[in-house]
Specification:
Number of helices: 10
Strand order of the largest sheet: 3-4-5
Strand content: 5-15%
Distance between the termini: 39 Å
Structural class: alpha/beta
Order of helices and strands: HEEHEHHHEHEEEHHHH
Number of strands: 7
Largest sheet: 3 strands, parallel
């Protein structure tokens, strides 16, 4: 997480081998990212960019998901099953024969995710994957990301400037002017609101609401999601 220009997308491109480092080393799962290992590591990493239109290749959703599989010489009988599997996991089965131009922003991003997942990466990088979507589209993609993490144990690196997106993370790295400024759990990071504000980052709205309620004697516990705050308020109301 970090403000615009903090270096988030640069980190994503370095991890995927799309940018060459100027110094130091990049090690992923014990393997150094260099010319010798580049191909092997790229097969283990998938990346979804902020504009899904830039990732569309095929004339239909099915063709687009199939593109990467064809490049990996996956046999046609196996390919159909893989396409169906990941279209279902991203909720796009009904759109397999649809042209991408007829999809909403959230649906296009789902297709981009399905195409990357079909390659079966071990690490999935989302580079500002929701920044161009409306609130409904953002909620759709965040839900897909969390489901993928819970169902498959896939390592997910989510890069964003939207603090509301990091509340469900296992760990957070805050970048500022190309350097690591803070690391910790979401709650540890959000407890340092003054430092975040200096880096032009605000607390998630749910946490802001929770803090305001506490000032008025209403405790919402440790919840830092909107659903959690609403649930705590409902429990409070029922108890009264």
């Amino acid at each position: 997480i970090g403000h615009n220009g903090s270096g988030k997308s640069t980190v994503a491109k370095l991890l995927a081998g799309l940018l060459e480092k100027e110094k130091g080393t990049i090690v992923i799962d014990g393997m150094e990212l260099n010319d010798e290992n580049l191909h092997a590591l790229r097969r283990r990493i998938g990346i979804v960019f902020q504009n899904p239109d830039n990732q569309f290749i095929g004339s239909t959703v099915r063709d687009d998901i199939a593109f990467g599989l064809e490049n990996h010489c996956v046999p046609q009988p196996e390919m159909d099953g893989i396409i169906e599997e990941f279209a279902a996991r991203t909720g796009m089965t009904a759109y397999l024969n649809t042209e991408p131009t007829h999809l909403s922003g959230g649906q296009k991003q789902r297709v981009a995710i399905a195409g990357v997942l079909a390659m079966k990466p071990e690490i999935l990088i989302f580079d500002e994957a929701t920044s161009m979507l409306d609130p409904q589209g953002k909620d759709e993609i965040k839900r897909v990301i969390m489901e993928l993490h819970k169902e498959s144990g896939l390592t997910i690196v989510s890069i964003t400037h939207d603090v509301d997106e990091v509340t469900g993370s296992d760990a957070v790295i805050v970048l500022d002017q190309g350097k690591v400024a803070m690391t910790g759990t979401p709650r540890e990071i959000f407890a340092q609101s003054d430092r975040l504000k200096k880096m032009h980052l605000e607390l998630p709205f749910a946490l802001q609401l929770s803090e305001q309620l506490k000032k008025h004697g209403v405790s919402t516990g440790d919840e830092i999601t909107m659903e959690g705050v609403v649930e705590a308020l409902c429990r409070l109301h029922l108890n009264r």
